[in-house]
Specification:
With about 290 residues, this protein is α/β, with parallel strands linked by helices. It has helices spanning about 5-15, 35-40, 60-65, 80-85, 105-115, 130-140, 150-160, 170-175, 215-230, 235-240, 250-255, 270-289, and strands spanning about 30, 50-55, 70-75, 95-100, 120-125, 145-150, 180-185, 190, 200-205. It has a 7-stranded mixed β-sheet with strand order 4-3-2-5-6-9-7, sandwiched between helices. A two-stranded antiparallel ribbon has the order 1-8. The structure holds S-adenosylmethionine.
């Protein structure tokens, strides 16, 4: 069965009484080159265990199965159980786990289902949960790479450099944990039902260590979030109004000592700049104790 042929998918889903759920981000691929190219971009081999989120009818799952040592696919929609039982017949290295990816203990799942393999993620993500899913997958530190299809707009934000409109707190979080690559775009015509927006495939490669050293990572991200919560404010005003323990004087003094214009906005700073500011604020706060 061709799992990207619209007529075949429709007949299969009708046979099982399946109804598409918008809330679950169910846009299934109907162009054979897309799952093939996504799986190819994930760089798989027999030593690799792949975590897939949301197999749908299993078109990407089958491509992953051909290339990897093991595939574990987490699917929230239990009504896809009989569909996947049919479409993944013969894919001996695939295990489907029914549940919410956001509620999984990911390190425990990998240890239980794919011990001894190097772990990567490859998925056409449900767009409504892209940010929390990527936050959890990067935060757990279990994966060498994440090759995922997401909304183009979000992909651009993740890969954006400083001084661009797309640059923001989530992009800095991702870039802190991984090197980012924008691979290719996929038009709405490649899905059923068709989404309103274009999609992009990105690859995130986990960094062995953060891009720059910083004394207090939690404070760094509090400062980054504050800077972009109120993008139009100067950094001094954004930090003084949102970061506990930081006064306007302290923020101004920090920028001056580091040689920045005190009217600078967060969007002009790269990760190294944010780290330097974090370290300086931490030093001033420690001296005041
Ligand atoms: N992989 C298929 C494809 O490319 O055609 C389907 C991708 S579709 C964009 C997203 C899939 O994720 C759906 O099957 C949906 O039911 C599933 N899903 C949605 N939210 C989920 C969650 N929180 N945990 C696991 N799966 C989820």
């Amino acid at each position: 069965m061709d799992l990207t042929d619209y007529k075949e998918i429709r007949a299969l889903l009708e046979r099982h009484g399946f109804r598409f759920s918008k809330a679950l981000g169910q846009n299934f691929l109907t162009a054979a080159w897309v799952p093939r190219d996504i799986a190819e971009a994930a760089g798989l081999d027999a030593e690799t265990g792949v975590l897939e989120i949301g197999p749908g009818v299993g078109c990407l799952t089958r491509e992953l199965s051909l290339r990897a040592g093991k595939v574990v696919s987490v699917e929230l929609d239990r009504s896809l159980q009989p569909v996947l039982a049919e479409t993944l017949t013969g894919c001996e290295n695939v295990e489907v786990v029914f549940g919410d990816i956001l509620k999984q203990d990911i390190p425990a799942l990998l240890e239980e289902t794919m011990p001894g393999l190097r772990h990567v993620v490859c998925a056409n993500l449900p767009y409504n949960v892209t940010t929390p899913v990527l936050t959890a997958l990067l935060g757990c530190g279990c994966f060498e790479t994440l090759t995922v299809m997401i909304q183009r707009e979000v992909a651009r934000r993740i890969c954006a450099p400083p001084n661009t409109p797309d640059y923001g707190a989530f992009g800095i979080f991702v870039q802190w944990h991984a090197q980012t690559e924008l691979l290719f775009d996929v038009p709405p015509s490649c899905f059923v039902p068709q989404p309103k927006v274009t999609s992009s495939v990105i690859r995130l490669t986990r960094r062995a260590s953060p891009p720059v050293p910083v004394t207090d990572e939690a404070l760094l991200f509090r400062i980054v979030r504050a800077a972009f919560n109120q993008r139009r404010k100067t950094l001094v005003n954004a930090l003084a109004s949102q970061v506990p323990g930081v006064t306007k004087e302290m923020a101004g003094q920090t920028l001056e000592v580091l040689g920045y214009d005190t009217r600078i906005r967060g969007e002009a700073l790269d990760i190294g700049g944010f780290a330097k500011i974090t370290d300086k604020i931490r030093t001033i706060q420690n001296a005041d104790l």
